[in-house]
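Q: Structure for this?
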Amino acid sequence: MTMFSSSLTDTIRLTRRGLVLAAVALALSPAAALAQAARDPSAEQFVQAAAQKVLAILNEPATAQRSRTFDQAVEELVAMPKISNFVLGKYGRTITPAQRARFDVAFRRYAEGVYEKRLGEYRHAALKVVGSQVRKPGDVIVRTQLSGGPPGDPLIASWRVTQDGGAWKIIDLEFKGVWLAITQQQDFVSTVDNAGGDVGVLIGQLERDASHG
Amino acid sequence: MRDFSERDSHRAAPPRRVLPAVSLALALVPATPVFATPVADAARPAAATATAMGPAHGDPFERTNRRMYALSNAIDRAILAPIVHVYLRAPAALRDRVSAFIYNLGEPRTAANDVLQGRPRAAGKTLARLVINSTVGVGGLFDVASRAGLAGSQADFGQTLGRWGAGTGPYLFFPFLGPTNVRDGLGGLIDSVSDPVAWATGGLGTTFAGARGGVTTLDTRAQADSEIQALDDAIDPYATIRSAYLQNRAATVDQARGQAPSLPDFDDPAPASETAPVAAPASNTAAASNSAHPE
């Protein structure tokens, strides 16, 4: 009886050891599986520098000056005209030039506020590029790991960057499978759909949001 | 009249895990067309995931869903949010132990789904995490496996169904349960009734199961709190949650299939997500009356 239970204990111990060894072996392999697509070092360098710049700005005390510096960084690093067109979805084709001009201004202010708030949560985080994937030349997804931000596991954030006339620009940002600009497009299109196709309602709401933000 | 999309500061959590007790409610939903669009993802892999969640797309019950969303907000505001905001004052170190413990209880279910998805390596990794964290990690209170390079990965039966080609079916919104769809709601139900930990501890009717359900709700809602507050920035929070939820689920399935996310082209004048016809404007929705609630 004693012998039986001691051999059972040994078996469990061995099984555990086997599992731990298997775990260690597995731990070394997943990175290889993710790296099957081509990487783009210049896009990775751009994201590392851009994200670090933005997080450094957000580490300053929140003042009007910081907001201005942040907005300048957005201007420099983000492909705002592309995003502004994208988030309108199908209404990008029907909007009047006058509405478009108003929308671009309102969206820029709105988006700057959203970026400042969302990225501000990670201002203390350390950012490290962990990989990239070329979708097509000039359209790259760069994966980064943010650690030391809000509690929880290190967060993986993906930055979609595009090369516009030589310079890289950010066009979208993903956390947990959710892309910011795609979500905004669906938010905005739903808003306009439910306003009977009147883009003016969306513009009015963005203007009010920006002025309250 | 108060509008459904009124911009409250606390909204229903998009739960990352289906709550065991609550998902039983799904069984009571009448006339839900199960697998209304089977194998849809597999049949059109390029467009069916991240980009195919436009308005009127996959949400045929939008009007009812918006009512449920409003109800869910009211419940959250009255009951859940106040509890969560007290809980969030507890030290992060304590809350992290709760999160780790709940997560660890989900590992057997994750491993089972890893196997069902034909990913034995992922299953091995999950089981190794379970063994390490349950022992060295003091019953799952500490995620020491992550620190040893074994990061956690969740798997659920909705994802398994997606892995094998099932489409999401219509989008649904339930009070307590939050956003879901036919595939993932059914998946959550099956995960609950087949959960190895629940079986090992006497089923879903035990005090342990009840406590686990309650703590899981609290933990999930607390972890989602900053995302829920970020919904203040949304113009149509309902559409925003729907988009975020469906993208998150599509990414989960993409991950199980080992494929890259299918993303729209920013230069494309007509994104694929919007080829679906526009919904008839609903009188009780979003933007029109949203403007009556400035912040």
